[in-house]
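TASK: fixed-backbone design
INPUT:
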């Protein structure tokens, strides 16, 4: 009996150990932090789906493509309401899409989102959020060229969708759906110009035109079907940008295809490839040794692939239709690099124009502002600039009880009698004035100080250094940079 009891106890201990230690040997907790499972970038905005099923969006937002319900550019990622169990995101130009585990698809942004003109808090900048694409069901994979999209179904077939004018109202857009014939067993798909390339489960790649060049329109169901085989086998992944498609062969060799090349051709210097993605006229490559490489293939014959600095022990890679990309390192950190116009990178690194200085930087964690433990929500963007928190005046100040006002200074003879904006912040017995001169001037209870305080401009809004102001006004603030929680007031004690 004792021997049997000992065996049972040993088996229980082994089962418990297997439950908490994965095959790699690293301990994980039940409340492990979420990591990115799918990331995609448009012209200047980004999306990320996380392992907990949530989605964050950031960057250029004129068409509501970030998904936060506004058209205000967002320089820090924001969690998108109304989406759950998301397993893949796809962005292109100024549109966004998300796929959930049940096979349903949502879209938002240009032509896929709605304007809301009567919102009292945001009368001219309110946008509708993600809307379900009702014609798509049982989907396993999605891709977009920035307007149309293709969904791969769980049964291995594919459906093309695209925006179109309603036949009864030429001012109203609707989404049309067209099942694509002639190809089955599909695993994934990319759009390269007017063509769709389908990667099948057997490693073959087939090509079908989705545009009728004779009629000058997208494919109709009545159009003839011509399917070409670009590779009979051996392909494990694809990516595309513009008219170019890139194929990854099972032996790690990267290939390029377009209508001029006719057949996929090997790219010199890009072997030992684990994964590839694209940006605008750029190919991004993750090699099997965990390093990250970039090839600006339309920048002249002498331009060669180069290694992206600071990118080591990379485990995953994603692209955009802009000039930037995203990667994940072994710790699960989401990184970005490239030209982040309008905050499309959300790394705070700004725009990079010299390839020699391109390097990765962590994508900022979404911020959650708490006042005495309660969430404070606001429309405008926040910023992290030189390691400091910045917020617009229409953010946390009202909830904190801080009175904010803007006036103009007296004519300043040092600046040709120019009148500067003067911002005031009043809380308790303290009144702070910031004169927006160059450099800014700080006054506390009417007395000028030599302390420096810096204002910034993001998304056409003046941004204020929250930590500096809270310190001057005597308001407690704690910022957890890992979780993104910013605790204000009593919750910061």
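OUTPUT:
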């Amino acid at each position: 009996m004792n021997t049997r009891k000992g065996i049972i106890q040993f088996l229980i201990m082994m089962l418990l150990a297997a439950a908490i230690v994965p095959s790699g040997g690293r301990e994980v907790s039940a409340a492990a932090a979420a990591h990115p499972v799918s990331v995609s970038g448009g012209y200047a905005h980004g999306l990320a789906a996380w392992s907990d099923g949530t989605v964050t969006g950031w960057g250029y937002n004129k068409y509501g493509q970030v998904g936060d319900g506004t058209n205000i550019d967002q320089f820090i990622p924001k969690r998108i309401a109304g989406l759950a169990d998301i397993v893949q995101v796809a962005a292109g130009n100024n549109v966004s899409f998300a796929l959930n585990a049940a096979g349903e698809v949502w879209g938002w942004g240009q032509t896929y989102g709605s304007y809301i003109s009567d919102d009292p808090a945001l009368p001219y900048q309110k946008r509708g959020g993600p809307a379900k694409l009702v014609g798509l069901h049982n989907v396993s994979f999605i891709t977009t060229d920035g307007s149309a999209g293709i969904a791969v179904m769980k049964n291995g077939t594919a459906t093309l969708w695209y925006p179109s004018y309603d036949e009864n109202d030429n001012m109203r857009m609707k989404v049309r759906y067209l099942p694509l014939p002639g190809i089955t067993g599909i695993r994934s798909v990319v759009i390269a110009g007017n063509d769709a390339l389908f990667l099948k489960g057997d490693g073959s790649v087939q090509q079908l035109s989705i545009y009728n060049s004779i009629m000058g329109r997208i494919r109709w169901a009545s159009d003839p079907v011509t399917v070409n085989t670009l590779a009979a086998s051996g392909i494990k992944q694809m990516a595309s940008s513009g008219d170019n498609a890139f194929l990854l062969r099972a032996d790690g060799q990267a290939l390029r295809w377009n209508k001029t090349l006719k057949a996929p051709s090997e790219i010199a210097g890009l072997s030992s490839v684990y994964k590839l993605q694209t940006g605008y006229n750029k190919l991004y490559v993750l090699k099997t040794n965990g390093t990250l490489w970039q090839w600006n293939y339309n920048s002249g014959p002498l331009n060669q692939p180069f290694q992206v600095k600071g990118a080591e022990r990379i485990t995953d890679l994603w692209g955009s239709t802009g000039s930037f990309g995203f990667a994940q390192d072994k710790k699960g950190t989401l990184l970005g690099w490239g030209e982040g116009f309008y905050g499309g990178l959300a790394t705070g690194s700004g725009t990079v124009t010299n390839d020699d200085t391109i390097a990765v930087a962590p994508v900022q964690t979404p911020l959650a502002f708490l006042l005495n433990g309660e969430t404070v929500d606001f429309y405008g963007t926040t910023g992290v600039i030189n390691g400091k928190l910045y917020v617009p005046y229409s953010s946390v100040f009202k909830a904190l009880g801080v009175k904010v006002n803007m006036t103009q200074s007296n004519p300043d003879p040092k600046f040709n009698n120019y009148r500067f904006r003067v911002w005031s912040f009043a809380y308790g017995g303290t009144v702070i004035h910031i004169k927006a001169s160059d450099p800014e001037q700080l006054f506390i209870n009417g007395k000028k100080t030599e302390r420096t305080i810096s204002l910034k401009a993001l998304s056409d809004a003046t941004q204020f250094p929250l930590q500096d102001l809270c310190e001057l006004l005597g308001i407690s603030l704690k910022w957890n940079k890992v979780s993104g929680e910013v605790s204000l007031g009593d919750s910061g004690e």
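COMMENT: The longest helix spans residues 2-20.
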